[in-house]
Amino acid sequence: MASGTPYEIPTADGPLPGLLWLPRETTHAGPVPGLVVMQEIFGLTDYIRSRCQDLADLGYAVLAPQVYARLDPPVLALEDDEEDLLGRAMGLLGQVDWDQAVRDGLAARDALASMPEVDELGVGLVGFCFGGGLAFNVAAQACQAEVPPAALVSFYGSALPQLLHLAEDVDCPSLHVFGTDDAYIPMEQVEQIREAVTAGGAREQVRFELHEGAGHAFDNPNPVFHHEEASEEAWAQAEEFLQQVLPTR
């Protein structure tokens, strides 16, 4: 499993640990686009780190901040075999200072953009579950500060129903993916999200994809969540979208 290289992200609230992946060609191919990856509720799991490696293999520089490093004690990730996995994850999530996490996401974006290996104008955001909503909020703040991300990919952003007042501010190419059998975000809310982020279909730069029969966290390989067909299709959509709006070649 590609675990990434430890990287300290400077922030106004003190340094934050993160993990960095660079594409193999970076040393002689010039600056490449970058992606900040925001973790799922379980932390920077093997699954999330594997997705970071997938993105690096596509040619992106990838930085994943360790959001749970702000907790006491700090946590990198929960293990799939932990007892009451979801309950423990919800407990960790309840300790997160959301505004702090947004600031950390912005700081990660700035840190990645400042690297000599990275095209400073070509940094996007990718998030999963908890991280999908967090990436959306980071994108809104960045756009308000007139440094919009080059792209946003949000996998079933769990906080999006509470963040729709920010939809008008997220002015960047975006992809949102959801499952139609998401027990955590029912279809009524999914359609409200679609209406808000696409401005009723008027925003052509926003792509919205639904995956029939898939539940929440369907890209996670844990058998409790995984939907193989939806996972394969959604990841292919993410790759296609990113290569359209933030090409690596």
Automatic annotation (TrEMBL):
Pfam families: DLH (PF01738)
Keywords: Hydrolase
Limits of the Dienelactone hydrolase domain: 28-245
Sample GO molecular function, one term: hydrolase activity
InterPro entries hit by this protein: AB_hydrolase_fold, Dienelactn_hydro, Dienelactone_hydrolase-like
Superkingdom of source: Bacteria
Protein's recorded name: Dienelactone hydrolase
Phylogenetic placement of the source organism: Bacteria, Bacillati, Actinomycetota, Actinomycetes, Micrococcales
